[in-house]
Amino acid sequence: MAIEPEPPEIFDKVVHINRCAKVVKGGRRFSFSSLVVSGDRNGRVGVGLGKAKEVPEAIRKGTEMARKNLVLIQLREDTIPHLVVGVSDGGKVLLRPASPGTGIIAGGSVRAVLEAVGIKNVLTKSLRSNNQRAMINATMAGLKKLRSKQQIAHLRSAE
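The structure corresponding to this sequence follows.
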């Protein structure tokens, strides 16, 4: 009987909880949506949006969705391989590699994604929207564009 490897510890961070109100005959009905980032701090990260009538249920749904949508990101030691700009909807985020000891220079939602993926030294700048969902999606788009030296060399040799 083979021993199955233990799944890596996944870090979850609730980035934003939004309360929505629907006006009905008897008053207001509230529902909640939560934006959650999950990652193994070793190159995999995912984002999820959960909606429900109660906050804990919305967070649970968002966490489930984030864990289902984990994607692998190319890293170089504890930073990113090269400068990249991620764009999604109204969000535009610049990600720049940094030398060891710099830390994560980023705002709240971008910081959550970078911590979850395991990046320790990076400089970022939000260039457009400050909406959390747009910034997270732009950060994810930028991270998905990253390529290692070997991948770039392989792509160039194929041409």
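The chain is about 30% helix and 35% strand.
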